[in-house]
Design brief:
It is built from 10 helices and no strands. It is an all-alpha fold and 215 residues long. It has 2 domains: 51 residues, Homeodomain-like (Arc Repressor Mutant, subunit A), CATH 1.10.10.60; 136 residues, Orthogonal Bundle (Tetracycline Repressor, domain 2). The longest helix has 28 residues. The N and C termini lie far apart (75 Å).
Length: 215
Protein backbone atom coordinates (compact mmCIF):
# COMPACT_ATOMS: atom_id res chain seq x y z
CA UNK A 1 0.00 0.00 0.00
CA UNK A 2 1.41 3.38 -1.02
CA UNK A 3 1.92 5.82 1.84
CA UNK A 4 -0.21 8.95 1.55
CA UNK A 5 1.44 12.14 0.38
CA UNK A 6 2.31 13.94 3.67
CA UNK A 7 1.69 17.31 2.06
CA UNK A 8 -1.36 17.61 -0.21
CA UNK A 9 -0.64 18.95 -3.65
CA UNK A 10 -3.21 21.70 -3.34
CA UNK A 11 -1.48 22.95 -0.20
CA UNK A 12 1.91 23.09 -1.88
CA UNK A 13 0.32 24.87 -4.82
CA UNK A 14 -1.32 27.47 -2.55
CA UNK A 15 1.96 28.16 -0.78
CA UNK A 16 3.67 28.75 -4.12
CA UNK A 17 1.05 31.15 -5.43
CA UNK A 18 2.46 34.44 -4.07
CA UNK A 19 5.77 33.83 -5.85
CA UNK A 20 3.96 32.74 -9.01
CA UNK A 21 1.95 35.97 -8.96
CA UNK A 22 5.07 38.07 -8.35
CA UNK A 23 6.98 36.33 -11.14
CA UNK A 24 4.09 36.88 -13.55
CA UNK A 25 3.75 40.53 -12.55
CA UNK A 26 7.47 41.22 -12.97
CA UNK A 27 7.40 39.74 -16.47
CA UNK A 28 4.54 42.04 -17.43
CA UNK A 29 5.96 45.10 -15.69
CA UNK A 30 9.24 44.63 -17.56
CA UNK A 31 7.67 44.09 -20.97
CA UNK A 32 4.77 46.55 -20.99
CA UNK A 33 5.24 48.78 -17.93
CA UNK A 34 3.52 49.09 -14.59
CA UNK A 35 0.75 51.48 -15.66
CA UNK A 36 -0.29 49.38 -18.67
CA UNK A 37 -0.48 46.15 -16.69
CA UNK A 38 -3.76 45.09 -15.11
CA UNK A 39 -4.49 42.64 -12.32
CA UNK A 40 -6.43 40.57 -14.86
CA UNK A 41 -3.30 40.27 -16.99
CA UNK A 42 -1.21 39.30 -13.98
CA UNK A 43 -3.74 36.61 -13.09
CA UNK A 44 -3.75 35.28 -16.66
CA UNK A 45 0.04 35.25 -16.81
CA UNK A 46 0.16 33.31 -13.52
CA UNK A 47 -2.56 30.88 -14.62
CA UNK A 48 -4.91 32.01 -11.85
CA UNK A 49 -8.20 33.80 -11.49
CA UNK A 50 -8.32 37.51 -10.69
CA UNK A 51 -9.92 36.60 -7.37
CA UNK A 52 -7.00 34.33 -6.52
CA UNK A 53 -4.58 37.23 -7.02
CA UNK A 54 -6.63 39.40 -4.67
CA UNK A 55 -6.41 36.72 -1.98
CA UNK A 56 -2.71 37.49 -1.68
CA UNK A 57 -2.39 41.05 -2.96
CA UNK A 58 -5.25 43.54 -2.53
CA UNK A 59 -4.06 45.79 -5.37
CA UNK A 60 -1.52 46.14 -8.16
CA UNK A 61 0.47 48.48 -5.91
CA UNK A 62 0.59 45.69 -3.32
CA UNK A 63 2.02 43.36 -5.97
CA UNK A 64 4.81 45.84 -6.65
CA UNK A 65 5.43 46.17 -2.93
CA UNK A 66 5.68 42.39 -2.76
CA UNK A 67 8.32 42.45 -5.48
CA UNK A 68 10.33 45.08 -3.61
CA UNK A 69 10.14 43.26 -0.30
CA UNK A 70 10.98 39.89 -1.83
CA UNK A 71 14.01 41.05 -3.84
CA UNK A 72 15.41 44.08 -2.04
CA UNK A 73 14.47 44.02 1.64
CA UNK A 74 16.74 41.02 2.45
CA UNK A 75 19.58 42.80 0.63
CA UNK A 76 19.06 46.06 2.51
CA UNK A 77 18.70 44.29 5.86
CA UNK A 78 22.02 42.52 5.27
CA UNK A 79 23.67 45.79 4.26
CA UNK A 80 22.35 47.63 7.32
CA UNK A 81 23.56 44.88 9.66
CA UNK A 82 27.05 44.99 8.10
CA UNK A 83 27.22 48.78 8.40
CA UNK A 84 26.10 48.83 12.04
CA UNK A 85 28.61 46.16 13.02
CA UNK A 86 31.62 47.94 11.53
CA UNK A 87 34.00 50.26 13.36
CA UNK A 88 37.14 51.99 12.17
CA UNK A 89 37.97 53.08 8.64
CA UNK A 90 34.68 53.13 6.70
CA UNK A 91 36.29 52.65 3.30
CA UNK A 92 36.70 48.84 3.49
CA UNK A 93 33.05 48.61 4.49
CA UNK A 94 32.04 50.78 1.53
CA UNK A 95 33.87 48.28 -0.70
CA UNK A 96 31.95 45.41 0.92
CA UNK A 97 28.72 47.33 0.49
CA UNK A 98 29.52 47.84 -3.20
CA UNK A 99 30.25 44.12 -3.57
CA UNK A 100 26.91 43.28 -1.96
CA UNK A 101 25.14 45.73 -4.26
CA UNK A 102 26.83 44.31 -7.34
CA UNK A 103 25.93 40.76 -6.37
CA UNK A 104 22.37 41.67 -5.51
CA UNK A 105 21.74 43.56 -8.73
CA UNK A 106 23.61 41.16 -11.00
CA UNK A 107 20.31 39.51 -11.86
CA UNK A 108 18.51 41.62 -14.45
CA UNK A 109 15.12 40.84 -12.94
CA UNK A 110 16.24 42.15 -9.55
CA UNK A 111 17.73 45.24 -11.18
CA UNK A 112 14.41 45.80 -12.96
CA UNK A 113 12.68 46.50 -9.63
CA UNK A 114 14.53 49.70 -8.55
CA UNK A 115 14.42 50.87 -12.17
CA UNK A 116 10.66 50.36 -12.16
CA UNK A 117 10.32 52.26 -8.89
CA UNK A 118 12.38 55.16 -10.26
CA UNK A 119 9.95 55.45 -13.18
CA UNK A 120 6.77 55.20 -11.11
CA UNK A 121 7.54 56.81 -7.74
CA UNK A 122 7.37 60.46 -8.85
CA UNK A 123 3.71 60.16 -9.78
CA UNK A 124 2.80 57.77 -6.98
CA UNK A 125 3.71 59.17 -3.53
CA UNK A 126 2.45 56.03 -1.82
CA UNK A 127 4.89 53.94 -3.85
CA UNK A 128 7.76 56.27 -2.93
CA UNK A 129 6.78 55.97 0.76
CA UNK A 130 6.68 52.18 0.51
CA UNK A 131 10.12 52.03 -1.13
CA UNK A 132 11.54 54.37 1.49
CA UNK A 133 10.26 52.13 4.27
CA UNK A 134 11.31 48.86 2.63
CA UNK A 135 14.72 49.94 1.34
CA UNK A 136 16.01 53.45 1.97
CA UNK A 137 15.24 53.91 5.67
CA UNK A 138 16.90 50.57 6.42
CA UNK A 139 20.28 51.64 5.03
CA UNK A 140 20.64 55.43 5.14
CA UNK A 141 20.88 55.87 8.95
CA UNK A 142 23.46 53.09 9.21
CA UNK A 143 25.48 54.62 6.37
CA UNK A 144 25.41 58.07 8.00
CA UNK A 145 26.56 56.51 11.27
CA UNK A 146 29.40 54.66 9.52
CA UNK A 147 30.73 57.88 8.02
CA UNK A 148 30.30 59.82 11.27
CA UNK A 149 32.41 57.41 13.26
CA UNK A 150 34.98 57.42 10.45
CA UNK A 151 35.29 61.19 10.76
CA UNK A 152 35.40 61.04 14.56
CA UNK A 153 38.20 58.48 14.44
CA UNK A 154 40.21 60.45 11.88
CA UNK A 155 40.00 57.67 9.31
CA UNK A 156 38.52 60.00 6.69
CA UNK A 157 38.66 63.78 6.29
CA UNK A 158 36.02 65.92 8.02
CA UNK A 159 32.92 65.74 5.83
CA UNK A 160 29.19 66.17 6.32
CA UNK A 161 28.02 62.53 6.68
CA UNK A 162 24.46 63.16 5.47
CA UNK A 163 25.57 65.06 2.38
CA UNK A 164 28.26 62.45 1.70
CA UNK A 165 25.65 59.68 1.70
CA UNK A 166 23.95 61.55 -1.13
CA UNK A 167 27.31 61.85 -2.87
CA UNK A 168 27.78 58.08 -2.55
CA UNK A 169 24.35 57.09 -3.81
CA UNK A 170 23.79 59.86 -6.34
CA UNK A 171 25.98 58.61 -9.21
CA UNK A 172 24.44 55.12 -9.06
CA UNK A 173 20.90 56.48 -9.09
CA UNK A 174 21.74 58.90 -11.92
CA UNK A 175 23.32 56.07 -13.91
CA UNK A 176 20.05 54.11 -13.70
CA UNK A 177 17.96 57.20 -14.34
CA UNK A 178 19.85 58.17 -17.47
CA UNK A 179 19.54 54.68 -18.89
CA UNK A 180 15.98 53.87 -17.92
CA UNK A 181 14.20 57.21 -18.25
CA UNK A 182 16.25 59.09 -20.83
CA UNK A 183 17.61 56.10 -22.79
CA UNK A 184 21.20 57.33 -22.39
CA UNK A 185 23.40 54.27 -21.88
CA UNK A 186 27.18 53.91 -22.26
CA UNK A 187 28.17 52.33 -25.57
CA UNK A 188 29.16 49.09 -23.82
CA UNK A 189 25.89 48.79 -21.90
CA UNK A 190 24.82 49.59 -18.36
CA UNK A 191 27.94 48.00 -16.81
CA UNK A 192 26.90 48.75 -13.24
CA UNK A 193 30.01 47.04 -11.88
CA UNK A 194 32.32 49.33 -13.87
CA UNK A 195 30.36 52.38 -12.76
CA UNK A 196 30.66 51.39 -9.09
CA UNK A 197 34.41 50.71 -9.37
CA UNK A 198 34.97 54.06 -11.07
CA UNK A 199 32.84 55.82 -8.48
CA UNK A 200 34.66 54.27 -5.52
CA UNK A 201 38.08 55.25 -6.87
CA UNK A 202 37.00 58.89 -7.11
CA UNK A 203 35.12 58.79 -3.80
CA UNK A 204 38.04 57.35 -1.84
CA UNK A 205 40.39 60.00 -3.19
CA UNK A 206 38.02 62.61 -1.82
CA UNK A 207 37.57 60.88 1.55
CA UNK A 208 41.28 60.39 2.21
CA UNK A 209 42.29 62.09 5.47
CA UNK A 210 44.17 65.34 5.29
CA UNK A 211 47.94 64.78 5.48
CA UNK A 212 49.06 64.37 9.06
CA UNK A 213 45.59 63.51 10.35
CA UNK A 214 45.74 59.76 9.75
CA UNK A 215 45.13 57.91 13.04
Amino acid sequence: MTAPDPEPKFRRRAEARPDEILDAALTLFETQGFAATTVEQIARQAGLSKGAVYLYFPSKDAVLEGLVRRALTPLTDQAAAMLRAHSGDPRPMLVRLAQLLRAGLADEHTLAIPKLVIREAVGKPELAAMYRDAVIDRVLPALVSLLSQGVDGGFIRPIDPEMTVRTILGPILMHLLLADVFDITPKDGLRLEALIDNHLSILFAGLAPVSGDTP
